[in-house]
Specification:
By secondary structure, the chain is mainly α. It has helices at 3-32, 36-62, 82-109, 113-143, 147-157. The chain has a single domain (3-157), classed as Ferritin, core subunit, four-helix bundle (Ferritin, Up-down Bundle), CATH 1.20.1260. It has five helices and no strands. The longest helix has 31 residues, at 113-143. The structure holds MU-OXO-diiron (FEO).
Length: 167
Amino acid sequence: MKEKMENALNRQVNAELYSSYLYLAMESYFQSISLSGCAKWMRGQVQEEMFHGIKIYDYVHERGGRSQFESIDKPETQWASPLAAFEHILAHEKKVTERINDLIDIALEVRDHAAKAFLDWFIIEQVEEEATVGEIVDRLRLIGNDSSGLFYLDAELGKRVFSLPAK
Ligand code: FEO
């Protein structure tokens, strides 16, 4: 694998682990305001982002590359409201989508069609992530200050069960 591709994939491993850390900070925030369903939903995100990071790590090694290890940025730890937290996620996931698009640009630039095919999985994943979070943001905006609506949504999000996607 070309060095440029390998370095970019390694940076993405770091970014996915940062995402996992950010969602862990959100889980803690939701626990602190006793919205245990939202907290449980965040745990699913924590595991999913860790899975994404490891999936790229494995791919780098499968291609004969070597991981690089850098510091993981400190995430925000406090939000003004559940809506503010989910709006943060939506903005964050849109940035992640841009990063995946940039990775695909690099794959095409260095004519690494195998890496491009590998990254296509992440493009589909991002469409799903943005749609899911966008819907939660819409619902929270509709709920506004109605606490019974918030508790209902919290209970619904708490039903999330994380299972590892098939390879
Ligand atoms: Fe790994 Fe939420 O993207």
